[in-house]
Amino acid sequence: MTKLMKYQDAVKQFDPVLGLEVHVELGTKTKMFDAAPNVFGGEPNTNITEVSLGLPGSLPVVNHTAVEYAIKIGLALNCQIAQHCRFARKNYFYPDLAKAYQTSQSDEPIAFDGYLDVELEDGEIFRVQIERAHMEEDAGKNTHVGGADGRIQGADYSLVDYNRAGVPLVEIVTRPIEGAGERAPEVAARYVQTLRDIFRALDVSEARMERGNVRADVNVSLRESPDAPLGTRTETKNVNSFRAIEKAVRYEISRQAARLSSGERVIQETRHYHAEDGTTSAGREKSDAEDYRYFPEPDLVPVAPPRQWVEQLREGLPELPAVRRRRLREEWGFTEMEMRDVVSADAVDLIEETVAEGTTPAAARKWWMGSLSRTAKEADVELSELAVTPKQLAQLQALVDDGSLNDKLARQALEGVLAGEGSPAEVVQKRGLKVVSDDGALIEAVEQAMDANPDVVEKIRGGKMAAVGALIGPVMKATRGQADAGRVRELIMERI
Ligand code: ADP
Ligand code: MG
Which of 62, 124, 270, 433 minimizes the number of CB atoms within 10 Å of its CB? Predict the structure, then answer.
């Protein structure tokens, strides 16, 4: 059993340091160095050329749009843009890369020395220093068949799909992130979220975490105190949701603290994250001097972006997430607190899309931050992973607004949508969820309730209007919650 120290004790005793390596797949039409289409999915090994496979004699050519996107990312992260930079071969042997090297950048990244300001839940701004952002190509995808949870160990055979080989990536590497203290998990998750928002704002990637468009490697180390030298780090690979990032950091802090406090060393290694229980387990040992035998790529000319072009790109940068949030907060009339909650629930885009479908900001917020947030939390998923779209939510709210549904019925209809029963209108039909406003059925229930509660009727006659509630209750019950409460009240008053 892995020993863990209680998180609160761990961060009292030790100072956590983070390092984040984020890969983003660029949404270019073609791959980084060849004309094969860059599309998600597709039959295995169809979106490839000789270059994707690195066949002998094939030659790469740099994708101009990928360079443009990389520069935009660098600029948005307040980086210097290299006057001149080269690609390098990073040698390793693995079936997902047929060339046996990845074309990447090592000591000459396109962008370097930047920072990103990250807003935390309490409104504090935390600055993360960026070491570099460099261009590289993605590898193909191995599928190991027959072993436990898709690992190569114990597998009977492996399949390789090269469709993803050569897809353009930008990797953004932070400097060691110090000073986050007990908020290290939050800083890590909000940093990646802010990056994701920037990729979307720049329109350089769809940046969908669940598709692996954005992937984070999370380095964590502990030290006795903030002025001690850096401790030994572990690198948890490919963590692909904000919740997972938060949990992976938390878990590593608790695990490393338990080891250190019992006199054991932390082993420098890569680790795997397990979404089922929020734990990590050992991967391969990895030393700093890992020998990839980087050397300059002889088949590609250096990239030397003209200054004038870089300045044009800088001027053309769109509204970045921090500014957008401020604008939307004002447009929507949310308080600072409400907006921060919306941001940390990752509901900004969802609310924006719901509002675009005709719902008021307040109603959109109520749905996403209310029952849907609870549902997501219970299911341990992100809001965007729930089986309801902004459009469906807007349709649901429209049914509330036109009086077809009351709040209670609307929640039932939403349950149906989440359960895959169809659009709100379809669920309403299938489940028979209409508000009863045809008077015939209502009058009967109203009169029964009045007959059964003569004392309440007396009170109302005597001027105690608040007592009406005691009659509405039984009417609702008799109509299984489908009565329009306003109409019931009117019918009671008419009879009194
Ligand atoms: P690797 O090649 O092992 O992935 P990189 O330099 O690409 O190494 O990335 C390592 C990441 O970890 C960087 O973000 C770096 O700032 C960070 N880092 C380095 N040392 C430590 C440490 N002791 N504790 C936490 N993070 C660290
Ligand atoms: Mg790395």
Answer: 124
What is the C-alpha separation between 496 and 482, in angstroms, rounded?
23
Q: Which residues neighbour 398 within 8 Å (Cβ) at sequence distance 6 or greater?
A: 358, 359
| In the chain, % of residues over pLDDT 90 | 74
| The pLDDT of residue 288 | 64
> Taking the model in full, what pTM does it have?
0.84
Ligand 1 pocket, 269 CB below 6 A?
Answer: no
- Secondary structure element (H or E) that encloses residue 398, with its range: helix 390-401
Taking the alpha carbons at both ends of the chain, their separation in whole angstroms is: 71
Closest ligand to the CA of 18:
1
DSSP 8-state secondary structure symbol assigned to residue 164: G
Mean pLDDT of 74-83: 98
SS3 406: coil
Residues with Cβ within 8 Å of 311's Cβ and at least 6 positions away in sequence, in order, are none
User: Alpha carbon 44 to chain centroid distance?
Assistant: 27
**For the residues 213-241, what does the mean pLDDT come to?**
96
d(CA 89, CA 19): 24
pLDDT at 289 over 60: no
Which atom from ligand 1 is nearest to the alpha carbon of 21?
A: 14
Strands 234-239 vs 269-274: parallel, antiparallel or unpaired = parallel
256 vs 267: CA distance, rounded Å? 9
Closest residue to atom 24 of ligand 1, CA basis: 221
DSSP string, 219-251: EEEEESSTTSPP---EEEEEE-SHHHHHHHHHH
Pairing mode, if any, of strands 141-145 and 125-137? Answer: unpaired
- β-strand 125-137 against 168-174: which pairing, if any? antiparallel
Q: How confident is the model at residue 69 (pLDDT cuts 50, 70, 90)?
A: very high
User: How many C-beta atoms surround the C-beta of residue 127 within 10 A?
Assistant: 12
Distance CA 78, CA 74 (A): 6
In the numeric block, the tokens 């928002």 are attached to 197
How crowded is the C-beta side of 118, counted as CA atoms within 13 Å?
26
Residue 438 has pLDDT above 80, yes or no: no
Higher pLDDT, 276 or 29: 29
pLDDT the model gives residue 138: 96
Ligand 1 close to Cβ of residue 236 (< 6 A)? no
Residue 38 CA to ligand 2 center (angstroms) comes to 23
H/E segment holding residue 104? strand 101-104
Q: Relative to the CA of 232, which ligand 1 atom is closest?
A: 23
